[in-house]
Amino acid sequence: MNAEAKTDIRALSLDALRAFFMEQGEQPFRGNQVYEWLWKKGAHRFEDMTNLSKPLREALEERFTINHIAVDQMQRSADGTIKNAVKLHDGLVVESVLIPTDSRTTACVSSQVGCSLDCRFCATARLKRMRNLNPDEIYDQVVAIDRQSRLYFDRPLSNIVFMGMGEPLMNYPNVMKAIEKITSEDGLGMSPKRITVSTSGVPKLIRKMADEQPRFNLAVSLHSAIEETRTRIMPFNEKMPLSELREAVVYWYGKTRSRITYEYVVWEGVNDKAVDIRALLDFCKAAPCKVNLIEYNPIDDGEFRQASPEAIDRYVQALEGAGVTVTVRRSRGKDIDAACGQLANKSQE
Ligand code: SAH
Fold first, then answer.
1. Active site residue 284
2. What's the rounded Cα separation, in Å, for the pair 97 and 111?
3. For residue 330, what pLDDT is reported?
4. Any idea where the domains of the chain sit in the sequence?
5. Of 113, 140, 141, 148, which cross-links 96 as Cys (Cβ 3.0–4.6 Å)?
6. How far is the CA of 117 from the centre of ligand 1 (A)?
C-alpha cells in the first residue's frame, strides 16, 4: 500500500481511534494512548509509540500515515523574529512567524497555501490559492512555534494570530477545528482569549462564526471605510461590501460582546485625507472597537507608499479625540520578509 492510499490518522477523532482498536480486538484505551502520542506528544512515527506492542504499531503503520509538517527553513531577524518556511506532506510550503516582545511570544500562522482574495497591497494575494490547510497543519505550526519559543526564548508561546498566509474564514471549518484543538485540554490547552482570527472581512462568515459564540478575538482588515476606496485596494469588496461588513461586525458584537480590532494601513494618496478619517470614525460607531494602525511593508514596485508620519498622527488624534483606542504598530521581521503582507514563499522562487 503506498502512502497516498493510507488514511491520515490525525483526521480521526478519539472515538474513531478507540473504535479502530475495538475492531482489532484490542482494548479501546489503546486509542487514547495513540491520541496522546499524536496530539500531546507530537509523535511523527508509529515506532515512537513505545507503550504499544510491536505488532500493534505495525498494524497502525499498515493502515495509516502520520502527515506532519516539517520546518524546512528558518530565518532569524535582527529583532528576534523567526520566519519558518513550513513544508507540508505534499511538498507545498507555507510560512509561519514567531514574534517575540518583552512580555509575550506570538505565533503568526497560515491558514491557506496562497490566498483566494485579491488585496492589492499584499504579497500573498499574488500567489493563487492552492489549497486549504488541514486542521492538523494549522495546529502543527503552533506546536512548532511553541517549541521554538521554549528553545530560543525560554518561555512558552503566549498568543496566536491568524495573520499569516491565506484568509482564515475561507477555510472556516478547518480553522475552527484547529482552534478547538489548540484550546482543548487534550491539545495545547491555550486560552481562546489569546487567539485572534484576522479576516479581510467576509460578512456572511463573520455572522456564522458569531453564532457559535467563540471566545477568541476578531480582527478585521479594514484599511478604508469608504466603499469605492476599499474596492480599489481590496477588489473583493465589490461582492462583500462595507455596508454588509458593518452589519456583520454589529452582529458579532451583539453575540460575543467582544470588541473588534480594525487593522488599518494609511497610504499616501489612498486614504490619508480628512474624508477618510471621518469615514473611519463613523464606521467605529457601529460597534465597540479599537484601531490598529499598521506600518506598510512595501512589497514591490512602489505602487503603494506608506503615508507621512503627520498623516498617521492625524488619524491618531482624531480617533483618540473620538474616544476610540488606537495603537500604532511597528512592523517586526521586515529584514527577512516576515512582516504582514510579505509572506510569499520567496525562498521557494
Ligand atoms: N487574510 C487575513 C489575514 C492575513 S493578512 C486578513 O486580511 O486579515 C494580515 C494583515 O496584514 C491584514 O491586516 C492585512 O491587510 C495586512 N497586510 C497585508 N499586506 C500588507 C502589507 N504589505 N503591509 C502591511 N500590512 C499588510
1. no
2. 13
3. 78
4. 3-65, 70-348
5. 141
6. 11
